[in-house]
DNA sequence: GTTCCACCGGAAACGGGGGACC
DNA sequence: GGTCCCCCGTTTCCGGTGGAAC
């Protein structure tokens, strides 16, 4: 059944990217100066999750590396590396320059200094989920650093610009901005067809079944591939030659849940308790939520910290905040 | 329409933990 | 071993907001 499981993984970079020609051309134009050993234009990729932003950025750099012998690049997920220090540390990893840096004693300025003295080949940094950076100074730092080009990725353009200060906004307005839309049904189907062709036995799924999966994924490629992965895994265990409808049907909620579970796994114990309370009490009000949290946890954190945790849960797309002020409630997505 | 106040989130301070240096 | 410095999760403080109550 499964010939190459890698193509069903989220991190997989395909040999060709479909339905993103316009976006790919725009990104390639922005990166083109690198081929002449010049810094690329800053590129800004916006759009909903599962629209192929990260995939396209990685793909474009992979293509670029085929054309340019000397090129360094580094991928930074600002959701995980959200402080200035951590993001800089990750960036320096891209040029193998972190051996003597200690996470709890080296000053951030020392990392900046090291980056400033970098004189290797052109260096492209992908900052994914850039709106999650706690300190926007990092973007200034990188703008000022010679020899570093940036690809910035975020979900919502307006939200990001709203919190940046004017100097940065004017610079970013000059950047190449590339907007991604959700995939259309037929686009998702053809993405799935490719994955089946590259990774599974021939004809294990009918066109109709792929349409079904694509429809359930609602424009999100990550969810679509998650469902496909779940169905293929199940069918492999059952040792069948084609995937029956029942397996596809069962894989739809499971595939969605897998995407969710990946996020839940990254939560801290306190965040997991909050998620659990909201799961059990849909539409819970803040005061009740805090009270219940205090009940369940041995050493509860302050309310302000809890609010930070809730913001995090909302950003992971695990919970939703409804209403404002006294009308605020929390529920699962 | 006005007042009240629960709630939010920014900013700054605090303190734990860990490495460097003497 | 003592002291200093640094990062970072957490806490404290507080002004702004908007729905509820009057």
Highlighted features:
Rossmann fold; DNA-binding; 333 residues; 5-stranded parallel beta sheet; 3 domains; two-stranded antiparallel sheet; alpha/beta
How is this structure best summarized?
The chain has 3 domains: 7-179, Rossmann fold, CATH 3.40.50.300; 185-262, Orthogonal Bundle (Helicase, Ruva Protein, domain 3), CATH 1.10.8; 267-332, Winged helix-like DNA-binding domain superfamily/Winged helix DNA-binding domain (Arc Repressor Mutant, subunit A, Orthogonal Bundle).
Distance between the termini: 34 Å
Biggest sheet strand line-up: 2-3-4-1-5
Radius of gyration of CA atoms, rounded to a whole number: 22 Å
CATH C-level category of the largest domain = Alpha Beta
Overall morphology = globular
What is the element string, with H for helices and E for strands?
HEHEHHEHEHHEHHHHHHHEE
Number of helices: 14
The CATH topology label of the largest domain is Rossmann fold
| Percent in strands | 5-15%
* The CATH homologous superfamily of the largest domain: P-loop containing nucleotide triphosphate hydrolases
Structure summary, number of beta strands: 7
* Strand-pairing-aware structural class: alpha/beta
Helix content: 40-55%
- The mean pLDDT is 91
The residue ranges in which pLDDT falls below 50 over 5 or more consecutive positions are: none
CATH architecture designation of the largest domain: 3-Layer(aba) Sandwich
Count of discrete structural domains:
3
Oligomer: single chain
Largest sheet: 5 strands, parallel
């Amino acid at each position: 059944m499964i010939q190459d499981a890698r193509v069903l993984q989220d991190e997989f970079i395909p040999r060709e990217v479909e339905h993103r020609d316009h976006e790919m051309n725009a990104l390639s134009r922005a990166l083109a100066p690198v081929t002449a050993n010049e810094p690329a234009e800053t590129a800004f990729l916006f759009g909903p999750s599962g629209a192929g932003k990260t995939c396209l950025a990685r793909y474009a750099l992979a293509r670029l590396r085929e054309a340019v012998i000397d090129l360094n690049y580094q991928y930074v997920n600002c959701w995980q590396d959200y402080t200035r220090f951590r993001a800089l540390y990750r960036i320096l990893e891209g040029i193998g320059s972190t051996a003597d840096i200690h996470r709890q004693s080296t000053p951030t300025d020392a990392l900046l200094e090291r980056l400033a003295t970098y004189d290797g080949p052109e260096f492209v940094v992908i900052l994914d989920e850039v709106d999650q950076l706690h300190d926007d100074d990092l973007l200034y730092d990188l703008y000022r650093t010679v020899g570093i080009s940036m690809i910035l990725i975020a979900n919502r353009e307006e939200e990001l610009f709203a919190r940046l200060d004017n100097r940065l906004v004017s610079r970013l307005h000059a950047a190449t901005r590339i907007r991604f839309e959700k995939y259309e049904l037929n686009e998702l189907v053809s993405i799935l067809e490719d994955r089946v062709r590259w990774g599974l036995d021939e004809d294990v799924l009918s066109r109709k079944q792929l349409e079904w999966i694509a429809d359930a994924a609602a424009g999100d490629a990550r969810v679509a591939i998650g469902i496909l992965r779940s169905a293929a895994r199940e069918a492999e265990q059952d040792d069948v030659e084609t995937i029956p409808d029942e397996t596809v049907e069962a894989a739809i909620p499971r595939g969605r849940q897998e995407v969710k579970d990946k996020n839940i796994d990254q939560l801290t114990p306190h965040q997991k308790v909050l998620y659990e309370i909201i799961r059990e009490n849909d539409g819970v009000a803040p005061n009740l939520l805090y009270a219940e949290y205090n009940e369940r946890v041995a050493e509860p954190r302050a309310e302000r910290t809890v609010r930070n945790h809730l913001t995090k849960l909302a950003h992971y797309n695990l919970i939703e905040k409804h209403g404002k002020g006294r009308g605020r409630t929390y529920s699962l997505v």
